[in-house]
């Protein structure tokens, strides 16, 4: 039997499991080896992949297929998506060479037949796509980051750690969704991770001392009730300095406004800052808020400063601040080449957030990364708020040479799993690895 036969997909199965918020998601099991569909004991490898889910989602994201049966998980079950994996997707893909990622992803897109994967479900399709990549790596005797990224996949990401949550990721009085620390001055990934973790624990002690809550949000960051977004940044800077580091020089800040969550749906360019400043603000009012914070704090990255439909707000923000910081589009780009192309043409950002489940296949996610590279943009690899213990994202970040990653805080095992996998990768790379911001 030829080498190509030895790489065939020989079986696909799926299971409804739970994500980090206790909501159902799809786990795919894939077998590959030689012997085709009836290979039985001759299967070479068996891998699994589990799909994450977002709470703060863009309107044009690929569609997670949910059952809608209110008697099960409040309608959030994924049994139909699981059945599509076990049925149509399995029937179409068994016998196909597991190394042919582009062909397999294209087959699934065409089989689904919709623009946003709503028929079979992006959760079903992505689970298979991730499992295919994992199996291809194992059967090629390569770590996943090297299989997807080639010999040039040697750059470790700067961990942008979300240590304080607000917005839809927490039930507190903070408008902005994520406040991150960025160890720009560390010598290597493991040192940067250590710095972040130390600051995280110091911040916890500061919150305790002030009688503030140390409970955490969906992504593991603390979620205290604060007077303003400014107070959140002040507390983090205090924690950085009490941990023994220089704010800005060694550890910088990053913010995700997730402004779609407080944009007025019927009034373009209008926003309601419920907690900080209060009342309705137009684009220029928001711009003034951002400028004040950028002048006062060592912020190097700002994600979603305006709502997903407010392309003009994004353009003005990038025009004013894009030479100072990384301006990241998330809800407006949704890891989709079409929207990223528009952003490039209209100069509405200088970076895109990259999330696998926003678009639904490994191939399309890689295409989004390539589009950013071609334009000279940066790209920011990201987890979702509803995560799993799957470490695919860690390898994918190194494979894509993105240089920075957000994977949540220094608690919650579904976040730590990614950080720990990156520690393993750093050790594997040894002296070949690199680490730098920019």
From TrEMBL:
Say which domain of life the source belongs to. Bacteria
**What residues does substrate bind to?**
169, 178, 303, 330, 382-385, 406
Organism classification: Bacteria, Pseudomonadati, Planctomycetota, Phycisphaerae, Phycisphaerales
Protein name from the UniProt record: Enolase
Per its UniProt record, what CDD domains does this chain match?
enolase (cd03313)
**What residues bind (2R)-2-phosphoglycerate, as annotated?**
177, 355, 384-385, 406
List this protein's GO terms for biological process. Answer: glycolytic process
**Residues involved in Mg(2+) binding:** 256, 303, 330
Enzyme active site: 219, 355
Q: Where is the Enolase N-terminal domain?
A: 9-148
| Organism encoding this protein | Poriferisphaera corsica
């Amino acid at each position: 039997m030829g080498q190509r036969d030895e790489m065939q997909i020989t079986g696909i199965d799926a299971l409804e499991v739970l994500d980090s918020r206790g909501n159902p998601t799809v786990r795919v099991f894939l077998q590959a080896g030689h012997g085709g569909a009836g290979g039985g004991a001759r299967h070479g490898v068996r891998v699994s992949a589990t799909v994450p889910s977002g709470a703060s989602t863009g309107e044009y994201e690929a569609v997670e297929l949910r059952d809608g049966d209110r008697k099960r998980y409040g309608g959030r079950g994924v049994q139909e998506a699981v059945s599509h994996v076990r049925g149509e997707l399995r029937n179409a893909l068994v016998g196909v060479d597991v190394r042919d990622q582009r062909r397999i992803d294209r087959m699934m897109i065409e089989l689904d037949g919709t623009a946003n994967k709503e028929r079979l479900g992006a959760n079903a399709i992505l689970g298979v796509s991730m499992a295919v990549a994992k199996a291809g790596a194992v059967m090629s005797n390569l770590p996943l980051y090297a299989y997807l990224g080639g010999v040039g996949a040697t750059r470790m990401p700067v961990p942008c750690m979300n240590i304080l949550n607000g917005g839809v990721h927490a039930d507190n009085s903070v408008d902005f969704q994520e406040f991150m620390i960025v160890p720009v001055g560390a010598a290597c990934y493991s040192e940067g991770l250590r710095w972040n973790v130390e600051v995280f624990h110091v911040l916890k002690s500061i919150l305790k001392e002030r009688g503030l809550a140390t409970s955490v949000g969906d992504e593991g960051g603390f979620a205290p009730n604060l007077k303003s977004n400014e107070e959140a940044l002040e507390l983090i800077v205090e924690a950085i300095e009490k941990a023994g580091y220089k704010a800005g020089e060694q550890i910088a800040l990053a913010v995700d406004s997730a402004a779609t969550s407080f944009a007025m749906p019927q009034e373009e360019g209008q926003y309601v800052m419920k907690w900080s400043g209060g009342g309705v603000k137009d684009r220029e009012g928001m711009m003034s808020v951002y400028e004040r914070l950028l002048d006062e704090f060592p912020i190097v990255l700002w994600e979603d400063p305006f709502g997903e439909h407010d392309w003009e707000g994004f353009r003005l923000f990038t025009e004013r601040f894009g030479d100072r910081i990384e301006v990241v589009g998330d809800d407006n780009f949704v890891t989709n080449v079409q929207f990223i192309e528009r952003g490039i043409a209209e100069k509405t950002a200088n970076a895109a957030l990259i999330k696998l489940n926003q678009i639904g296949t490994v191939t399309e996610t890689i295409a989004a990364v390539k589009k950013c590279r071609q334009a000279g943009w940066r790209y920011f690899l990201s987890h979702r708020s509803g995560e799993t213990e799957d470490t695919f994202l860690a390898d994918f970040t190194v494979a894509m040479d993105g240089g920075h990653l957000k994977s949540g805080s220094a608690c919650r095992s579904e976040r730590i799993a990614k950080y720990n996998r990156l520690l393993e990768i750093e050790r594997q790379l040894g002296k070949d690895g690199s680490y730098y911001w920019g």
